[in-house]
Design brief:
Keywords: ATP-binding, Helicase, Hydrolase, Nucleotide-binding, RNA-binding. The chain has 933 residues and is α/β, with parallel strands linked by helices. It has 35 helices and 22 strands. It is 52% helix and 11% strand. The strands form five sheets. Strands 9-10-8-11-12-7-13 form a seven-stranded parallel beta sheet, with helices on both faces. Strands 16-17-15-18-19-14-20 form a seven-stranded parallel beta sheet. It has a three-stranded antiparallel beta sheet with strand order 1-2-3, with helices on one face. α9 packs parallel to α10, α22 packs across α23 and α32 runs parallel beside α35. The structure holds adenosine-5'-triphosphate (ATP).
């Protein structure tokens, strides 16, 4: 056992030697002319493993072209190490690095410095080395001949051998050995040449603060929680350790999945993957982007052989579930980018399932600008003694220094006009506008696009197809004068270059969202501006929260004179285009719903919104009906009255129990159910952001409803979903029947138009008739007067028909009851008669009935009654139609019971009369028969 090897670089020509003390052979590969030749040499060394090299030599031999990296990456360090360096140029750090590395892992250390150029470095090294024995330092400055050096090594061999121990997978460096404050450039880190080349190539030279703090710890195999301001370079802080981990694995068990990077959105995963490719371009392991939007099978074929995967949670989980040969058994490192988001409720179920598929023994890195400190989260991830690194904890502000932040207070109905005025005033800018939900994004994008502000207008939301999303992302990335309307899928992590403005047209749901949104500008030492638009009702609470989060923000006033009022223009547009009008209606409803579902009730109060003015500002003449608001109000009233009752019996001190406490009390339950639902959603849609329109609203709800609006409406969305489900199951309503009838009159062979995103454009004349849409149309409140009138006529007809059927049914039931009664009475009477008959006929011969000739009175009675019933039926069925109106009145009055009892008495009399008559008939017949005989 034992090896000597080395790499010398001399005017970019490299030489390698390898020595196996067991075989007593020295393999020499001198001065390959190119990197390829060098790699070929290394390959041939590897080839010799089985014959000439053993154990440690094997590992080292593999990395012989770069022994330091070999040692670093495999964790297998030969104690007899000979490093040959020419001591020039970039070898300085190498020597230091070698000393640190080998000191921490070797008990025997030998170093030869070629040419002796860097005697200072040699001396430094000697000082380090001399602290522990036995260590040897050789200067090769006097060694003219390579073979001489080999002989020297051979002489040492027996001595070295006695101290030969290998520490497998030694836990890297001592924390103290990488002092972050002393790191001035990436080369100061003990990184592989390939990574350093990649960094250099991408023009990354000086590490940022978070990189300085985290990379060293991560290289030491520590679990790290990294937090720093937006745009401060967290991506590289985890990409570099990932590359090094993979490189380290390469010599041993680089098989299958070794590193996993999870991002909350597809765009962010895509961006991270690009950085990984850029910095890792000189490495030769496989990497894959797993975000959905492509056939699963296509990914499944490659995923099992991919060493590093950048993914979104839903898609990854789908592979765990459905790709049979995919496993994470060899996983070494797990990274959660935007960790607080990934670990929040929306992803809870998916993440729990993913974590269950990962080996417990792994390194975990968590990064975010708003890092989680939740012990629960950390416990879920089974972190081992994690280090919390907050690069800007003591900074005066939690947002970037070069970011100028202001806010404007304006009424809800002025927002679009304000936006338009803003865009017209900033035509040569790159602007990112955030809105609450995707239906708003769609509508505002469409309106602004039609009004042509003189710049490219784009939109990005979760309802878009994957290809379109990538297209928009790239276009916004590329262009300089452009506005992008987006939901919060664009709020985290995205690194668009040179964004001048971030405008938050809708208030963010919390301060964390604010920080991430504004963080899309003023990235990495650039400047940027952020404008927050607040409603008067939102101002106080939101500004207070922002200030308590160390966010510097100033109020600016709107110059009303410079505002261009768009409402009349929008009304004209909506009047002439039903598609736009429908978009406006949806935007209106979803905005209100999202405000209703916001958890922070101090900031968001849907009751205070002027919905009428808002609908007008969107171009809607009539405000769409919003059922959920009515329901919510009813629930609030119910809750108020019940809580009023409750509190009356409570101690006075309980009165201080505020709403927030109450809602937080109910929080876990609501959260749980929300998150469950969300995750069912994942299962169907692959990942969190991979949802359709409503899905995305669902995603918002996940967080917003977490606040548990009230105990009564604990899960409003769910209630609504239930309602939707019920409405699907509900017996057909008259309106639905009427619409169906209308539909039948629509001529077939119609044309369907599709928009850019491949969605069918709905034509008002070809009304869709799904139950959901019917309800939507219902809520529209008779916008299309003609259609509404027609529908009302049809409804009227159906109404009458239904009413007639109802009356008929009622009559039928009454008749049946009457018959039952009659039958029962007759049966009673018959029983009495039979007794009599038995008495009369008691003396007769039992075998031969002398009265056989007499018709059976029961049969006779039954026949008569059947005839009567038939005629009665006919009579009453005719009567029913005539009596509809009177019946109607009867329905709701005490007259009903009176007339019923009257008719009942007369019926009884009639029946009695009939039965007396029957008896007389029978008696006469009996007498006649007896006389006849
Ligand atoms: N060491 C570096 N030298 C130069 N530029 C860097 C360095 N590190 C990162 N950058 C650049 O800084 C920008 C922001 O980096 P990154 O996206 O990693 O920030 P972040 O902290 O992850 O932001 P966020 O919190 O928004 O996700 C990127 O354009 C990146 O290329």
């Amino acid at each position: 056992m034992g090896v000597c090897f080395g790499l010398g670089s001399n005017n970019n020509r490299m030489s390698i030697i390898q020595f196996s003390s067991e075989s007593k052979q020295v393999h020499q590969f001198r001065e390959p002319q190119s990197r390829d030749a060098l790699l070929a040499a290394v390959d041939s060394m590897q080839h010799m493993r089985s014959s000439t090299c053993t154990g440690t030599a094997l590992e080292m031999g593999y990395h012989a072209f770069d022994p330091l990296n070999g040692a670093r990456s495999t964790g297998h360090v030969a104690h007899e190490t000979l490093l040959i360096t020419d001591g020039r140029s970039n070898c300085g750090p190498d020597i230091k690095e070698a000393s640190l590395l080998l000191q921490s892992r070797s008990t025997v250390f030998a170093l030869a410095i070629d040419l002796g150029y860097d005697l200072k470095a040699a001396k430094e090294l000697q000082a380090i080395v001399s602290t522990e024995s036995p260590r040897y330092l050789f200067s090769l400055a006097n060694f003219q001949d390579f073979n001489e050096m080999v002989r020297m090594v051979q002489r040492l061999d027996s001595k070295l051998k006695s101290n030969c121990k290998v520490r497998k997978n030694a836990s890297a460096f001592n924390v103290q050995q990488i002092v972050s404050s002393k790191i001035k450039s990436f080369t100061d880190f003990p990184l592989s040449r390939r990574t350093l080349d990649g960094l250099k190539n991408a023009k990354y030279e000086v590490p940022t603060e978070i990189q300085r703090e985290c990379i060293g710890l991560a290289l030491q195999n520590r679990d790290v929680l990294g937090a720093s301001k937006t745009g401060s370079g967290k991506t590289l802080a985890f990409i570099i350790p990932v590359l090094e981990t993979l490189y380290k694995m390469k010599g041993s068990q680089l098989c299958g999945l070794c590193a996993l990077i999870i991002s909350p959105t597809r765009e962010l995963a895509y961006q991270t993957f690009e950085v990984l490719k850029k910095v890792g371009r000189f490495h030769d392991f496989s990497a894959g982007l797993v975000i959905g939007g492509k056939p699963l099978q296509e990914e499944a074929e490659r995923i099992a052989n991919t060493n590093v995967i950048v993914c979104t949670p839903g898609r990854l989980l789908q592979h765990f579930d459905e790709t049979f040969n995919f496993s994470a058994d060899c996983l070494q490192i797990l990274v959660l980018d935007e960790a607080d988001r990934i670990l929040d409720l929306g992803f809870a179920k998916a993440m729990n399932a993913i974590i269950a598929n990962l080996p417990a023994e792994r390194q975990t890195l968590l990064f975010s600008a708003t890092q989680t400190k939740s012990v629960k989260d950390l416990a879920r991830l089974s972190l081992f003694d994690p280090v919390y690194v907050s690069a800007h904890e003591n900074a005066a502000y939690s947002t970037p220094v070069h970011l100028v932040q202001s806010y404007i207070v304006c009424d809800l109905h002025q927002k679009i006009s304000l936006l338009w005025s803003f865009l017209k005033n900033h035509p040569r800018c790159k602007i990112l506008v955030f809105l609450t939900c995707c239906k708003q994004v769609k509508f505002v994008h469409e309106v602004i696009r039609r009004l042509q502000p003189g710049m490219t207008v784009l939109c990005l939301h979760g309802g878009m197809k994957q290809l379109k999303r990538v297209e928009v992302y790239e276009e916004f990335y590329r262009k300089q004068h452009v506005v992008l309307f987006a939901t919060d899928i664009a709020s985290r992590g995205l690194d668009f270059p040179a964004v001048n403005w971030v405008v938050q047209l809708d208030c963010p749901e919390d301060t964390s969202t604010y920080i991430h949104r504004v963080g899309r500008t003023a990235r990495f030492e650039r400047e940027g501006e952020a404008l927050l638009v607040l409603l008067p009702t939102e101002e106080d609470a939101m500004i207070q929260q922002l200030q308590s989060r160390k966010i510097p923000i100033n109020k600016i006033r709107v110059n009303q004179k410079r505002m261009m009022d768009l409402s009349s223009k929008l009304q004209a547009l909506c009047a002439s285009d039903t598609t736009l009008k429908e978009m406006a209606q949806r935007a209106f409803r979803t905005y209100l719903r999202s405000i209703l579902l916001m958890k922070d009730k101090k900031v968001f109060d849907v009751q205070k919104l002027d919905t009428e003015a808002f609908s007008k500002s969107l171009g809607l003449a009539i405000p769409p009906r919003i059922r959920f608001l009515g329901k919510h109000e009813a629930q609030m009233r119910a809750q108020d009255s019940s809580s009023g009752q409750d509190t009356s019996s409570e101690d006075e001190s309980e009165d201080s129990h505020d709403e927030t406490d109450e809602s937080s009390e109910h929080l876990p339950k609501a959260r749980e159910s929300q998150s469950n639902r969300k995750n069912e959603h994942f299962a169907a849609f692959l990942d969190e952001e991979d949802t359709d329109d409503d899905g995305e609203i669902g995603m918002f709800r996940v967080k917003k409803t977490a606040a548990a609006i009230t105990p009564v409406s604990m899960v409003p969305e769910e209630t609504e979903n239930e309602e939707e489900k019920n409405s699907r199951k509900r017996p057909t309503t008259k309106a639905a029947i009427a619409k169906r009838m209308l539909k039948k009159s629509i001529v077939a062979n119609t044309k369907t138009k599709f928009d850019d995103e491949g969605n069918a454009v709905i034509d008002i004349h070809k009304k869709r008739l799904t139950d959901d849409q019917e309800r939507v149309e219902d809520e529209a409140g008779g916008i299309n007067v003609e259609a509404a009138a027609k529908r009302m006529r049809m409804e009227d007809m159906v109404d009458k028909d239904l009413y007639r059927q109802k009356i008929k049914q009622k009559h039928r039931e009454e008749r049946l009851k009457k018959k039952e009664r009659l039958r029962a009475e007759k049966a009673q009477r018959r029983a009495g008669q039979e007794d009599e008959e038995e008495a009369v006929l008691a003396s007769a011969d039992d075998d031969v009935n002398p009265l056989n000739f007499i018709p059976d009175p029961d049969e006779l009675a039954a026949r008569i009654s059947a005839q009567e019933n038939n005629s009665g039926d006919e009579r009453s069925s005719f009567g029913e139609e005539e009596d509809e109106s009177s019946d109607n009145e009867e329905n709701s009055g005490c007259n009903h019971s009176f007339s019923e009892s009257v008719s009942q008495t007369s019926d009884e009399e009639e029946t009695r009369r009939e039965s007396v008559q029957d008896d007389e008939d029978l008696a006469l017949r009996l007498l006649a028969g007896a006389m006849h005989r």
